[in-house]
User: Which sequence fits this backbone?
């Protein structure tokens, strides 16, 4: 069975391709899958009849005791036959129904095939969780299928309605399934039903399951989604909303009835809902002019009847219910397909426009009429046999309630007979005053599925006695009433027969007086409309959501931030107030610490009051350098080094951008709410001080890093523990971090470069080399010498002379290569001494900044003529490559491998693979800085020049 | 362990001044606030690592117990560089917003304001839905 479901999945995956190749003929190929499943199911059915059902089980999630368990007992078998048989015919029918140019046909074919597989899985699943998975799969597929015509608002709305209603029920059901599984101690449905647990919790679980069943099978008050779902293409309606999906709810009731029909409230609830649904659906069906809607409401009505029969929980009722389930599947699918043909060949489904189709399309008319007669319960068709069994089962109950329910069912049957007649008359009869329908010719194969289904209804009706033993094993799982009953066409002149005749007679009368009856229906007030109720509820939800969003999302970032900070102050403040573990206090570790702290305090407070951009940046820079001092005093040379380097680079980058902005901050829009912000800021500061103190006090466990000193040397092969931590012990963190750096670099470049951000920084344009007297006349350094090695900086002469500083150019020229050497030293020494990839990369960045500041935007391209993206990518690749190498060489991702050699000149040489990781980090940092410089430096320069040019042109 | 008063004062000041600036409307001030808070966080982590000690570099005569905790240091080291990356990003945003709008202002979200004022209610969207469904799926045929 698992194999069968896999074939469905494969077929669904291949469907778009097939449709692309074969057009609508692909449906013929696809229909072979359910057809094969039908044959396979048919041949394994004898096991169920003989009391040894076919089972299959594969461990799926052992920890949760969830298996891919399947069982083909009588109920599953019958349902499978229905699902696969009708599925094959419907897929085949799609061939004639759709045209090759139907939009989205590939996806549609895949969805429909997938649905057939999910439905088949649903009816054979023997595991609660597996059942739920298939259940929700059918929901999702049905959503996609209803919404197939994406351009129609009605279609989209119907799809959403179906999804919301059935998923809501499905979620309730999931809770019920979990409770039931936990209470029973197993997830096997067959075991649970055979030995049902009891207790109030189990009752709750059963009610939750029934919520799923009621929504899925469109019972009152959830019936409204089904007629709306008729927005789907007709083959979908035929399959999902007649034969398959809506039957899932009924199937669930049938599945649980042997074990849980005695649950308090089960019968009253289901019988009432069933009866009401039967009436409401039939009543509404009698008012429809659209044949498809007529059938849809008819389906609602029949689902009510089915639920009623299967919920009663006696042997006779179960037999009748199962028989009715099959009969309904046959005739309703046939009728829907007939309507599809009518729509296809005449272009309408409205009974007020159709006339004389019976004479024009005799085969169609015969098939449709047969199916409709089965629906009405006319002998010798399957519908009659099943309905008579149902009447008998209700009579056999022998209780007053039974008789009352029977009366209700007879009323429902009469209405059913009436709308069946209305269907036949509406579809095929010749009507006075309506022009005869023009019908296109159709292929015989297009009529085949509906005709076959209608015929099957006739054959099973005639051969009811032969079908009986195949369905009996299910009925036998329920307690019998007085006399054993068997399905048969002729039981003699029994009360049930008279009731059938009565229902038919009343139905015929209702049909004959249809005009008067319609007027009566129109006059009666509608007490409640579930559809309107649902839409009102949804509107209410929308309004509530809007109001909530409006209140909470005011759109102001400062407000959001203030809210977050208030929560922080209140939450952490409360925790701190309750804290009992306060540590001892010391003033400082060494008096010198006071100096940077005082500097920080002065500078930070000054930063809040600064109005000039540059002043503010410098003040914040002071804070940064002071922090570096603190790091140095604390015993963190790596941090001090990195902080100082970063601070310098930050300062330059700030200046690069801020030079384009006005000097004063907030000239146009001053700061507001100063006092409130100040109060909140002080509170946050105090709370964070409290946090800083409290975390020291509450600390109970030994530091994670306790053994790092040994680890670093023996496993990481380095003496600088911080560096080893970065490239080995916590290398995954570093990996994530360099990824963030790459994202930041790409983000910066994307924001600055408008069109294209790949490629190296700009090189010196060719025309600077060429003789250009205007540019050179007043430039003493130019003379007639070509640009070349003799220039201090290559791009220096691209700058206007008043912007050049020869001293700066000379200094940068002298320092640049030294800086690169230093950076390499830091990189390679970092494993044992302060330094490492971060510090080394930052030094390169500083050197590049020097070149850029001295030589202008073209100097950057001359200094490092490569694409920043390439450097970033190379760095990440090396880092990842090291990780993979560790996997290959050492067994773990990012694990270091140490090599040691003795070399003649160098003596003992030790190479640790994590060095390569550090090289990757180095390259990423260099790439980041290059990207930042060429964006915020070179490109901003270019845009500034362009703008000046444009403005000059405009004047 | 005990608390270093000067360090936690620095933490408090950095957080206070930082969030004060973060709540500004000028993006440049927000950025400065971000940098201050970032520094504050780094100090907070550093303070958790315990009192000052020797540099966590294995050398003769230095016991592991005398070293400053290397774990917070590793965390801070990456944080410093990340803060730089984010700073550069915000700077690029400032430049962009200046080029486009000639202002580095954090403005209110227009759509949020519209929702808050009650516009765009679901009622209107429903109207078109009430249209009568077609009675055929083959409109093109006739």
Assistant:
């Amino acid at each position: 069975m698992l194999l069968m479901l896999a074939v469905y999945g494969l077929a669904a995956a291949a469907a778009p391709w097939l449709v692309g190749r074969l057009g609508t003929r692909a449906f013929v190929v696809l229909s072979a899958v359910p057809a094969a499943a039908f044959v396979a199911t048919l041949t394994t059915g004898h096991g169920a009849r003989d009391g040894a059902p076919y089972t299959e089980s594969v461990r799926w999630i052992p920890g949760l005791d969830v298996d891919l368990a399947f069982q083909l007992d009588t109920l599953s078998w019958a349902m499978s036959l229905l699902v696969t048989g009708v599925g094959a015919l419907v897929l085949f029918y799609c061939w004639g129904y759709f045209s090759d140019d139907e939009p989205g046909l590939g996806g549609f074919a895949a969805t429909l095939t997938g649905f057939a597989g999910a439905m088949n899985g649903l009816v054979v699943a023997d595991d609660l969780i597996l059942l739920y998975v298939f259940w929700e799969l059918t929901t999702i597929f049905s959503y996609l299928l209803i919404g197939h015509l994406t351009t129609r608002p009605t279609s989209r709305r119907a799809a959403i309605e179906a999804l919301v209603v059935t998923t809501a029920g499905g979620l309730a059901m999931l809770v019920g399934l979990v409770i039931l599984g936990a209470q029973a101690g197993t997830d096997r449905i067959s075991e649970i039903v055979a030995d049902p647990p009891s207790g109030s919790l189990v009752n709750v679980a059963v009610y939750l399951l029934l919520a799923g069943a009621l929504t899925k099978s469109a019972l009152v008050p959830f019936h409204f989604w089904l007629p709306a779902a008729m927005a789907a293409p007709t083959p979908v309606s035929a399959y999902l909303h007649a034969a398959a999906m809506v039957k899932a709810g009924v199937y669930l009731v049938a599945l649980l009835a042997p074990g849980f029909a005695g649950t308090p409230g089960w019968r009253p609830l289901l019988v009432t809902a069933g009866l009401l649904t039967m009436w409401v659906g039939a009543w509404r069906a009698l008012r429809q002019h659209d044949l498809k809607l007529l059938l849809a409401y008819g389906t609602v009505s029949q689902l009510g009847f089915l639920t009623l029969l299967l919920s009663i929980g006696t042997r006779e009722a179960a037999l009748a219910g199962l028989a009715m389930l099959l009969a309904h599947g046959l005739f309703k699918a046939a009728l829907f397909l007939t309507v599809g043909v009518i729509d296809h060949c005449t272009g309408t489904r409205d009974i007020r426009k159709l006339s004389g189709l019976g004479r024009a399309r005799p085969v169609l008319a015969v098939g449709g009429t047969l199916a409709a007669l089965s629906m009405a319960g006319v002998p010798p068709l399957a519908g009659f046999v099943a309905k008579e069994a149902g009447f008998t089962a209700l009579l056999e109950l022998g209780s007053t309630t039974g008789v009352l329910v029977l009366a209700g069912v007879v009323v429902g049957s009469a209405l059913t007979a009436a709308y069946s007649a209305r269907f036949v008359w509406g579809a095929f009869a010749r009507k006075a005053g309506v022009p005869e329908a023009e019908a296109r010719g159709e292929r015989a194969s297009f009529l085949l599925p509906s005709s076959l289904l209608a015929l099957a209804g006739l054959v099973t009706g005639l051969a009811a006695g032969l079908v009986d033993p195949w369905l009996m094993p299910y009925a036998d799982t329920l307690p019998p009433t007085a006399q054993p009953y068997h399905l048969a066409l002729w039981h003699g002149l029994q009360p049930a027969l008279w009731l059938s005749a009565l229902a038919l007679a009343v139905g015929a009368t209702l049909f004959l007086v249809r005009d008067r009856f319609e007027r009566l229906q129109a006059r009666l007030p509608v007490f409640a409309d579930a559809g309107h109720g649902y839409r009102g509820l949804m509107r209410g939800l929308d309004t509530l959501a809007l109001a909530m969003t409006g209140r909470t999302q005011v759109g102001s970032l400062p407000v959001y931030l203030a809210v977050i900070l208030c929560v922080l102050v209140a939450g952490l403040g409360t925790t701190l107030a309750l804290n009992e573990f306060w540590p001892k206090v010391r003033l400082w570790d060494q008096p010198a610490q006071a100096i940077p702290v005082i500097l920080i305090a002065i500078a930070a407070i000054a930063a809040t009051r600064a109005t000039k951009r540059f002043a503010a940046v410098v003040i914040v820079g002071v804070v940064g350098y002071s922090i570096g001092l603190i790091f140095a005093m604390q015993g963190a040379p790596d941090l001090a080094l990195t902080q100082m380097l970063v601070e310098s680079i930050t300062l330059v980058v700030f200046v690069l951008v801020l030079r384009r902005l006005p000097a004063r901050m907030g000239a146009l829009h001053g700061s507001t709410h100063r006092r409130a912000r100040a109060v909140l800021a002080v509170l946050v500061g105090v709370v964070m001080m409290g946090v800083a103190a409290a975390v020291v006090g509450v600390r109970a466990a030994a530091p994670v890093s306790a053994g790092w000193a040994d680890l670093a040397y023996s496993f990481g092969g380095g003496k600088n523990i911080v560096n080893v931590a970065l490239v080995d012990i916590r290398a995954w963190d570093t990996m994530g971090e360099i990824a963030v750096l790459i994202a930041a670099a790409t983000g910066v470049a994307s924001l600055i470069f408008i069109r294209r951000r790949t490629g190296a920084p700009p090189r010196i344009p060719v025309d600077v080399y060429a003789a250009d007297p205007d540019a050179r006349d007043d430039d003493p350094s130019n003379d007639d010498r070509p640009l070349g090695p003799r220039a201090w900086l290559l791009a220096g002469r691209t700058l206007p002379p008043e912007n050049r500083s020869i001293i700066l150019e000379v200094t940068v020229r002298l320092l640049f290569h030294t800086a690169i050497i230093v950076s390499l030293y830091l990189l390679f020494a970092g494993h044992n001494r302060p330094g490492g990839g971060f510090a080394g990369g930052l030094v390169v960045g500083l050197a590049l900044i020097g070149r850029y500041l001295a030589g202008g935007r073209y100097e950057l391209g001359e200094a490092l003529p490569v694409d920043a993206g390439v450097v970033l990518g190379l760095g990440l690749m090396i880092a990842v490559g090291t990780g993979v190498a560790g996997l290959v060489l050492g067994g773990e991702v990012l694990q270091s491998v140490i090599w040691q050699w003795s070399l003649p000149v160098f003596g003992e040489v030790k190479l640790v693979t994590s060095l390569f990781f550090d090289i990757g980090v180095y390259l990423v940092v260099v790439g980041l800085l290059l990207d930042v410089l060429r964006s915020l430096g070179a490109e901003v320069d270019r845009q500034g020049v362009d703008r000046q040019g444009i403005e000059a042109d405009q004047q | 362990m005990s608390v270093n008063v000067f360090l936690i004062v620095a933490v408090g000041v950095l957080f206070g001044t930082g969030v004060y600036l973060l709540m500004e409307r000028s993006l440049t001030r927000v950025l400065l606030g971000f940098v201050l808070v970032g520094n504050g966080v780094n100090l907070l982590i550093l303070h958790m690592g315990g009192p000052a000690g020797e540099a966590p570099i294995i050398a003769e005569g230095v016991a592991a117990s005398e070293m400053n905790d290397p774990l917070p240091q590793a965390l801070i080291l990456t944080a410093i560089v990340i803060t730089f990356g984010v700073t550069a990003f915000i700077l690029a945003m400032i430049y962009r917003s200046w080029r486009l709008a000639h202002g580095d202002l954090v403005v209110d979200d227009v759509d949020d304001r519209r929702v808050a004022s009650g516009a765009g209610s679901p009622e209107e969207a429903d109207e078109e839905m009430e249209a009568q469904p077609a009675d055929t799926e083959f409109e093109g045929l006739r």
Chain A has three domains: 1-264, 278-512, 720-955. The first strand of chain A starts at residue 54 and ends at 61. Chain A touches chain B through 144 residues (CB under 8 Å).
